[in-house]
Specification:
eight-stranded mixed beta sheet, binds fe (iii) ion, hydrolase, Urease, subunit C, domain 1, EC 3.5.2.7, 392 residues, cytoplasm, alpha/beta, 14 helices, imidazolonepropionase activity, TIM Barrel, binds N-(iminomethyl)-L-glutamic acid, Imidazolonepropionase
Amino acid sequence: MSTVITNIGELVTNDPAVSTHRGGGLAVVRDAALVIEDGAVAWTGPSSRAPAADESFDAGGRAVLPGFVDSHAHLVFAGERAEEFAARMSGEKYAAGGIRTTVERTRAASDDELRANVRRLVHEMARQGVTTVECKSGYGLTVDQEARAVRIAAEYADEVTYLGAHVVPAEYAGDAAGYARLAATDMLAACAPHARWVDVFCEEGAFDADQAREVLTAGVKAGLAPRLHANQLTQGPAVRLAVELEAASADHCTFLGDADVDALASSRTVATLLPGVEFSTRQPYPDARRLLDAGATVALATDCNPGSCYSSSMAFCIAVAVRDMRMTPAEAVWAATAGGARALRRTDVGHLAPGARADVHVLDAPSYIHLAYRPGVPLTHAVWKHGRRVKG
Ligand code: NIG
Ligand code: FE
């Protein structure tokens, strides 16, 4: 079964053969067509030379991009925290402790309730052009509850991350080291078979660098690859730890010193920025310009979770990154597609070169620039995930 998408006004391919820039190197073809065959991109080129296919879709001059890659989300949870958000908007500070509220609700939920929540959010994302989703555990915080969370995440998400060391649960109050040991031993053993990644929230009020290192190195020994919640609330040691451990990504990067920026710029560790969090917590936005100018690779993701950012909108992240973080529209769209793929060490998504997974996002707009130019407007016209039409 093949499909040809014709009459594409602007095709953003991010073709790695053409686009070599570490961020902002969108490869754009005008008046293009794209052929999908067996779940993959089979051909791209000028619309006038498009080959025949079993089925055809007229893009009507619209822009077509690779599906968004949301490389950071926490979807296995129950309940919500709207009151906490309202209190923040009246001056309360965001603190890691709020996570425990969601832990209580999540522990009390049935498997099917958690499943329904993950499914709902993954569908909400797909309708907005997200075709690759990473999903973390981290609201269970017992061996059985974390194992249940990674299993449920694996049913719906493309990438699963074990985040047993999210925060110290109430039963371990005052014993972060003891809980980190559990997260690095029995809990890890129960979760590793269902996950690809291991993550730690390394921050004041959560886990210090030694505890984070213990969990991450144990995770690596168990066959997982590291990524890290780093420098979200303070200029701590987490970004440098991420680089030292050759983590795929250091996420948040809100409070950075020169040594952090230098470390990221001279490494393969992607700086994943999550502007929805700063929007929803009234923190300063991360300095994307400083990272890009230093030569770091930048990704954008939502961090969709009920506490620090209950948004699944990659378009919103792009708009904020362009308006308030001084990224160009090209840099922001690259970061939300190819950048996310790099943060997940995936070469099959985030671009539309022949051979890529057919994750195709047709915008109801003539150019990718409209994602930032028309903030808050739903611009997703049609979506294919792995060659299967999921919207439009
Ligand atoms: O990435 N910072 C740690 N974890 C999440 C927030 C989780 C929550 O507040 O429930 C984050 O921001
Ligand atoms: Fe997070």
